[in-house]
Amino acid sequence: MTNASHRTTPPTTASPLAAPALPLTAGRWAFDPMHSAVGFTIRHLGISKVRGRFNEFRAELVVGDSLETSSVTATVALASVDTGNADRDAHVRAADLLDVEKRPTMGFRSTRITGEGEDWTLSGELTIGDVTRPIDFAVEFGGVIEAMDGSRHAGFDATGEFRRGDFGLGFAPGILGDVVKVGLEMQFVEPR
């Protein structure tokens, strides 16, 4: 539970000539998995979408003195896929689809952060199995708020997409779309 009257965004102290920085306290922010989610959508038969989520994931946010020294990393356990249908989930995990024995995780490592205010772009590398490709996420910064226990939480929503064929996941063309849209909701707790 939070108290909305304590919602703040820390002031930036950068001068116009200084490198831009995130409007967050520098340091390693603790990931809050209880208030975070990783979801996806993919077209089925070209006429509708299947939605799902991953239930096991972790992320790390390190805020530096500038955007160049700030970073985000994340790892998703692909076996934790959940589309709301146990039979479909078992098939998605199987060798002819994700093959979670061969590809247990999906990883992300940021290479660049740009933006200001509420709107940011997080560019990086997405790795599935032994294939790595560039990806961009549009990020909305929700702000920083003080929780009832005095801890300060930062919230972010991010959206991006990739082509599964680029990662060697080209199974079932015509049945499943090639584009996978990813949606992230993340909270991190300020370092103390």
Topology:
Blueprint lengths: L26 E5 L5 E8 L3 E7 L2 E7 L7 E7 L3 E2 L3 H8 L11 E12 L2 E10 L2 E16 L5 E12 L12 E14 L3
Antiparallel strand pairs: 1-4, 1-11, 2-3, 2-11, 3-6, 4-5, 5-7, 7-8, 8-9, 9-10, 10-11
Poorly predicted residue ranges: 1-19
Order of helices and strands: EEEEEEHEEEEE
Helix content: under 10%
Percent strand equals over 45%
| Overall body shape | elongated
Terminus-to-terminus distance: 19 Å
> How can the largest sheet be summarized?
8 strands, antiparallel, barrel
Instruction: Find the structural class using helix and strand composition.
Output: mainly beta
Gyration radius, in Å? 18 Å
Number of strands: 11
Instruction: Figure out the total of helices.
Output: 1
Characterize the structure shown.
The protein is mostly beta strands and 192 residues long. It has one helix and eleven strands. Strand 4 (57-63) and strand 5 form a beta hairpin. It is elongated and about 45 Å long. The relative contact order is 0.22.
